Amino acid sequence: MTAPIPAPADNIAEIQQNIAQAKAHFQMTQAVTLCAVSKSQPAAAIRAAYAAGQTVFGENYLQEALGKQAQLQDCAIAWHFIGPIQSNKTQQIARQFDWVHSVDRLKIAQRLSDARTAELPPLNICLQVNISEEASKSGASGQELLQLALQIKQLPHLRLRGLMAIPAPQQDFAAQRDQFSQVRALFDHLNAHGLQLDTLSIGMSGDYQAAIAEGATLVRIGTAIFGARQPKPSPDTDLASKGAV
Ligand SMILES: *Cc1c(COP(=O)(O)O)cnc(C)c1O
């Protein structure tokens, strides 16, 4: 059974239009980066998106990402790690990615900084925050966030860029906005303390317009670009089913 290779170019063009329309509609002026989330998609699908001009890709599982990166070495891709981080994976994550969005504790940040080689530019970091305060979801809670951000800011081989959140899915646009506005408030709170964050990584296929209305500077979109994902049984994907995705 071979799955057809998706043709994401049209979807990317449509999403870019939707992003522009949402910005205009809500009178937002921030630049919005589209991060194409390619977990479970083959390297050929990434290559097709790349041929359409897409250069920023997000991956959740280290082993899966390494395999695809090896096949796409000729492409100038900015790789974003957006999945749960096990501490024994930090060394490879720090060396193989340009950004990590899912940092939620100091120990992981320290390990990433230690492993980032000096020849590379600092690793761009977003702190993952837990808005829904569900015990099952990863992410730092609001109270611990400022201290964590100030500590991570000191680490030599990291550059703290902003916040990432995956709020509980909501159908209702106002409810989506309400959750994102809480992330935005934390972002503003950290910047009021001098953190100089420039990246608000919020919004996925089902809610990116609401995220843009609340100031998203980076939206992480998978399904709307590549189509539905095929669940595949592997130790890596088992982690996702524990509530991280
Ligand atoms: C899978 C995933 C996405 C993309 O979700 P879609 O609903 O397919 O757009 C975005 N962010 C994270 C952290 C993810 O794990």
TrEMBL record:
Pfam families: Ala_racemase_N (PF01168). The keyword Transmembrane helix does not apply. SUPFAM superfamilies: PLP-binding barrel (SSF51419). It comes from the Bacteria. The modification N6-(pyridoxal phosphate)lysine is found at residue 39. InterPro entries: Ala_racemase_N (IPR001608), PLP-binding_barrel (IPR029066), PyrdxlP_homeostasis (IPR011078). Keywords: Pyridoxal phosphate. The keyword Zinc does not apply. Residues 12-229 form the Alanine racemase N-terminal domain. NCBIfam families: YggS family pyridoxal phosphate-dependent enzyme (TIGR00044). Pyridoxal 5'-phosphate (PLP)-binding protein, which is involved in PLP homeostasis. Belongs to the pyridoxal phosphate-binding protein YggS/PROSC family. This is Pyridoxal phosphate homeostasis protein. It comes from Methylophilus luteus. The lineage of its organism: Bacteria, Pseudomonadati, Pseudomonadota, Betaproteobacteria, Nitrosomonadales.
